[in-house]
Structures are given as structure tokens and as C-alpha cells.
Design brief:
single chain; 184 residues; alpha/beta; Rossmann fold; 5-stranded parallel sheet; 3-stranded antiparallel sheet
Length: 184
């Protein structure tokens, strides 16, 4: 998607520092890691979840279970996004029962993606609690959902688009905000 009036709001160093800060916040809130797991929402939330788990491992010298959640079938707009939506694999190779689960995604907007993620998670078991870590919170909620850990609050207009670029997908770490060129 081509954007106009683009502003870089986070660079590689800022993203790294932000994820380290969120890692510390997760540890402060949860006291220990023995019943903690991190699950990223596919696609970019999965990469951010792996990075958070890596930072937590560096701090605590303890490896956390990390999972990847595909929410495609749980979306309430499934027929609107494509005739044949692309489903990817959910990879949760551990029990989530009675665990504190930190769900990770790149951008929190309406809250619908997170609602889908919670619906999907309960199909895998009954976690003790679900916490939410977000790199960018842009506002405009349609559901009563809020993040427990926020990298950056970025108030936006509905015309604006936030793009999170990650090295694993885009060969760079960067967060930009701009307007869709098609809205001219």
C-alpha cells in the first residue's frame, strides 16, 4: 500500500528499546516466569512475541514457551476480507491451562483482532489470565479492550494508517504513519 505524508514514528533502536522495556514490565507484573507463556498473533505479533521472549530469557535466564496464533477463522469479517482467506498454522505446542498468557500484536486499533485471539485461545484451554502486549496503540476502539503493555500510544485519525515493518518480513525495523494515497 502506498502512503502519502509518511512520518517515521519508531526506528530500529526505538523498537528494540521499547520491546526491552515491555519485557521488564511483564516480569515486574508477573513476579516469575514458571507459569508464564507468550503467544503472538500471526503475522507480525508472532515475531514480536519471539523478540519479547528472547529479551525475557536474557534477563531471567529462563526460557518461556512461545506460541503463534492464527485468528483467521475467528474473524467477524471473514467473508469481507477474501473469498478464500489464507489460513496459516497455529503453533501452540504447550498447555495453556492455568498459565498466564501474554498475547502480543503489533497494532491495537478497533480491538476486534484481540477479541478473535481470545476466542481462539479458549479453544486451546483455560488460561489463568490473558494479558495483552502491543507495540502501537492507535485508539479508535470498537470493543472494550485495552492493552496491559503498550510500546507507544499514537493518536491517529481514521484516515491515517500505521505500518509496522519488521526485519523478519520487511528487511528493516520501522513504524510509520501516513495516509492512503488512494484517498485523494
Amino acid at each position: 500500500m502506498e502512503l502519502k505524508n509518511v512520518k517515521i514514528i519508531m526506528d530500529s533502536l526505538t523498537i528494540s528499546r521499547t520491546l526491552k522495556r515491555i519485557s521488564h514490565e511483564i516480569l515486574e507484573r508477573n513476579k516469575n516466569t514458571h507459569d508464564l507463556a507468550i503467544i503472538g498473533i500471526r503475522n507480525k505479533g508472532a515475531y514480536l512475541a519471539c523478540r519479547l521472549a528472547s529479551y525475557i530469557e536474557q534477563i531471567e535466564k529462563s526460557k518461556l514457551p512461545v506460541g503463534i496464533l492464527d485468528i483467521t477463522l475467528y474473524r467477524d469479517d471473514l467473508t469481507a476480507i477474501a473469498r478464500q482467506p489464507i489460513m496459516r498454522k497455529t503453533e501452540i505446542n504447550f498447555s495453556i491451562n492455568d498459565k498466564k498468557i501474554v498475547v502480543v500484536d503489533d497494532v491495537l486499533f478497533t480491538g476486534r483482532t484481540i477479541r478473535c485471539a481470545m476466542d481462539a485461545l479458549v479453544d486451546f484451554g483455560r488460561p489463568r489470565n490473558i494479558q495483552l502486549a502491543i507495540l502501537i496503540d492507535r485508539g479508535h476502539r470498537e470493543l472494550p479492550i485495552r492493552a496491559d503493555y503498550v510500546g507507544k500510544n499514537v493518536p491517529t485519525s481514521l484516515k491515517e494508517i500505521i505500518e509496522v515493518k519488521l526485519t523478519e518480513v520487511d528487511s528493516m525495523d520501522q513504524v510509520i504513519v501516513g495516509e492512503n494515497k488512494g484517498d485523494e
